[in-house]
Amino acid sequence: MQRTTERLILRTPTVDDLGSLFAIYSDPATNQFNPSGPLTRIEQAQSVLKGWLAHWQSTGYGQWAIATRERPDQVIGFGGIDARRYGDVLRLNLGYRFGVQAWGQGYATELSRAALDFAFVELQVAEVFAVVRPQHHASIRVLEKSGMQRIDTLSDVPGQAPSLVFRSRPDEVTQKVT
Ligand SMILES: CC(C)(COP(=O)(O)OP(=O)(O)OC[C@H]1O[C@@H](n2cnc3c(N)ncnc32)[C@H](O)[C@@H]1OP(=O)(O)O)[C@@H](O)C(=O)NCCC(=O)NCCS
Asked: Which residues have any ligand 1 atom within 6 Å of their CB?
């Protein structure tokens, strides 16, 4: 299954995306703010991909493999909406991870807006959440530009400052910051 935005193709991942997933998820630069750090073994990427495919199987949506319309064969990142545990609560979460070459072109914001539209219009969910480390200013900016509101904190990294929790609701999506 595939959908498009102005510049991006968002499609269901397949087992053939393992190499792209490992390349992007094993890069220290794309994990600078990830407390777990980069993946180091291909088996870890296999496990991540297996989880994504299971989520797609059980819900019909999940993390997309992302390419540009110009280069549909080249995966530049992964992102979308799926279930994530926030402490004891399971929430619908917006997440994304792009390869370094794709940064700084507004792609994460374009993906995030498309993902929120998908969640509210097609899934008709009441709210979507995102969690971000407090020093990750680029990602915070992406969430703000996507119209998400900072509502809470989450102590999800032992011994470190809490992460910031953002939320979006359908009636707030029109308030995107440009
Ligand atoms: C964070 C990430 C998703 C941003 O993707 P991107 O496509 O470059 O984001 P966009 O271009 O849509 O927007 C980035 C915004 O942050 C701003 N920004 C970038 N670096 C910044 C910094 N160090 N401090 C403040 N703002 C910054 C940009 O200027 C831009 O805002 P603007 O449009 O107002 O100028 C990308 O760097 C990435 O995939 N990183 C690795 C994975 C990751 O950290 N995922 C998020 C986990 S919460």
From this structure: 30, 33, 96-98, 103-109, 132, 136-139, 141-142
